[in-house]
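User: Sequence recovery, please. Input:
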C-alpha cells in the first residue's frame, strides 16, 4: 500500500519536484499530499495524518529554513529518515512578455535571485507568498496586462500556461536545497550516514558551547553543520542543531551522553542516509 508523503504545495513547487525524485530514486510507492505551508506538513506527520513529509531545511545561497528548524526543535517524536540534496532552478514566469511591475515568489527564491532582480528589475515590487507554485497561480489568475511575474519552477509554468521571461535566474549555478524526509518511528533498515542532534545549552555560562563542541572534537566526531535558533523563551537563549557524521563507534554514544549532561535538554532525531541528484 502506498505511504503518504506530505510536501509544500500547490502542484509545481520545488518541494513537489524533489518528492517526485525521492519516489523514483527509492522505488517507494508514495502518495503525495500537498500542504499550504511547511509547518502544516510537519504537524501532519506528528499527528499521524501522513506517514512522512519532505521539507526544505537549508539552501546553499540563503541558509536555514527557519520554520523547519523551529518546528523540528519543538516536535515530539519526529525522526529524520533521509536527506536529499536538490538542485534548485528558478525561472521568471509571466502570462506574456511586457513591463514587469511586481514579482511574486516564496521568500527563499526571491533571495536566491537577488543579483538578477537588482540587475534587471530594480524597480519591481517583490511580494513574498507561501510557495513558488502559489506565486505562479497568482500570476496566472491576474489579467495578462497586470505586469505581474513569478519566480517559480519550469513545471509550474507548464501547469499554468505561463511563459518563461528568463530562465536559470538564481545567483549561482550550484544553487541547491537540502531537504529532510521526516517521519515518526525510525527506519532502522536505512544506511546510517549522518545524524541530527538538537539541544539547548545554558548560554549564561562562559564556554558552554565550547564545552559541548569539545565532546565531539576530542572523540574525532565530524560535525558537518552547526546552526543556532532562538529558544523562543527569552532574548539570548539559543537552541543548537548539530549535523554529525555517523560512525558505528562507542565514541559517538559517549559524546552524545556527555553532551546531554551539559545541555538543558537534548533530542536525537536519528541517523539517515544522504541522497544526491546525479
Ligand atoms: O516554494 C517552493 O517551491 C518550495 O518548495 C519551498 C522552497 C523553500 O522553502 O526553500 C524549497 C526549495 C527552494 O529553496 C525554494 C523554495
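Assistant: Recovered sequence (278 residues):
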Amino acid at each position: 500500500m502506498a505511504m503518504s508523503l506530505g510536501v509544500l504545495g500547490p502542484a509545481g513547487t520545488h518541494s513537489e519536484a524533489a518528492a517526485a525524485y525521492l519516489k523514483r530514486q527509492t522505488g517507494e510507492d508514495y502518495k503525495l499530499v500537498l500542504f499550504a505551508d511547511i509547518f502544516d506538513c510537519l504537524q501532519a506527520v506528528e499527528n499521524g495524518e501522513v506517514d512522512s513529509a519532505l521539507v526544505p531545511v537549508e539552501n546553499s545561497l540563503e541558509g536555514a529554513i527557519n520554520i523547519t528548524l523551529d518546528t523540528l526543535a519543538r516536535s515530539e517524536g519526529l525522526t529524520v529518515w533521509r536527506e536529499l540534496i536538490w538542485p534548485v532552478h528558478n525561472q521568471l514566469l509571466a502570462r506574456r512578455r511586457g513591463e514587469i511591475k511586481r514579482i511574486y515568489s516564496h521568500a527563499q527564491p526571491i533571495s536566491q535571485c537577488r543579483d538578477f532582480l537588482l540587475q534587471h528589475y530594480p524597480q519591481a515590487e517583490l511580494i513574498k507568498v507561501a510557495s513558488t507554485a502559489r506565486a505562479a497561480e497568482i500570476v496566472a489568475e491576474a489579467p495578462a496586462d497586470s505586469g505581474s511575474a513569478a519566480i517559480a519552477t519550469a513545471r509550474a509554468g507548464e501547469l499554468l500556461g505561463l511563459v518563461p521571461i528568463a530562465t536559470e535566474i538564481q545567483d549561482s549555478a550550484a544553487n541547491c536545497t537540502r531537504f529532510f524526509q521526516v517521519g515518526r518511528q525510525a527506519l532502522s533498515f536505512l544506511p546510517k550516514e549522518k545524524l541530527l542532534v538538537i539541544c539547548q545549552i545554558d548560554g549564561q555560562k562562559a564556554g558552554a558551547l565550547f564545552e559541548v563542541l569539545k565532546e565531539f572534537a576530542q572523540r574525532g566526531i565530524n560535525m558537518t553543520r552547526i546552526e543556532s535558533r532562538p529558544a523562543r523563551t527569552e532574548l539570548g537563549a539559543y537552541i543548537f542543531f548539530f549535523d554529525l557524521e555517523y560512525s558505528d563507534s562507542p565514541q559517538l554514544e559517549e559524546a552524545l551522553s556527555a553532551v546531554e549532561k551539559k545541555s538543558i535538554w537534548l533530542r536525537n532525531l536519528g541517523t539517515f542516509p544522504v541522497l544526491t541528484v546525479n
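Residues 8, 13-15, 56, 59, 65, 88, 106, 108-109, 131-133, 177 surround prephenic acid (CB under 6 Å).
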